[in-house]
Amino acid sequence: MNSTDNTLTLTDFITRFQLQLPQPSEPARNQRRAAVLIPIICHHQPTVLLTRRSATLRKHAGQVAFPGGAADKEDTSLIATALREAHEEVAIPASSVRVLGQLPPVDSSSGFQVTPIVGLLAAGTRFRASRDEVADMFEMPLHQALSLASYTPLQIQRRAKNLQVYFSWYQSHMVWGMTAQILYRLGQHIHL
After folding, report:
1. Helix axes 177-190, 10-19, angle to 10 degrees
2. How far apart, in whole angstroms, are the C-alpha atoms of residue 171 and residue 178?
3. What domains can you pick out in the chain, each with its CATH number?
4. What's the pLDDT score for residue 73?
5. End-to-end CA separation in angstroms for the chain
């Protein structure tokens, strides 16, 4: 982070992401595999692209999310899954993504083991939402998305287990659940 302001440069992010080992996490319990792309757009002040899921979807309707979904048997890797899903949902060409790496998988409430893939996109990359899956797209400043102070923890009980979930607001969007958990973990990963 730049000491004169509260921004995170792209160079700082890349360096810290690549030099820091991922934080240890609880091993994922779910067996069905999925992947999401954390698309970081390389503006002068980098942003992360988020979507709001269509209200007509069966699961997680209307929630803020990363592009992503379940692995297909044709996918050669979870990176391929994330890139395929990002192309299907918001028309990001796989060839325009510079994959930096991945974070440890997290368990979703819908029974998937989800692997977050971190990728960089050029500032001029165009997006087009698949209206069947995506109601809206927006960019959140990377420094805010990864600021641990932006998140409020909340203790909940699910299936007789105490869990800590995070939520945050950006403009009119509430970021919570697995999306907030992934951003919070990425924030932990890059902060010293």
Report:
1. 80
2. 19
3. 10-190 (3.90.79.10)
4. 92
5. 10
Cα–Cα distances in Å, from 108 out to 111, 178, 180? 6, 7, 12
β-pair partners for 173: 170
The answer to whether the CB of 86 falls within 8 A of the CB of 39 is yes
**Residue 103 burial (CB count, 10 A):** 21
Q: Residue 120's Cα: distance from chain center in Å? A: 12
pTM score: 0.86
| Nearest CA among 105, 100, 115 for reference residue 20 | 100
**Angle at the Cα of 56 from the Cα atoms of 135 and 59, rounded to 5 degrees:** 100
Query: Position 87: which residue type?
Result: H
* Residue written as token pair 């592009």: 67
Mean pLDDT of all residues belonging to the chain: 85
CA 143, 147, 150, 152 dihedral sign is positive
The tokens for 26 are 């609880």
E strand or H helix that includes residue 135: strand 134-141
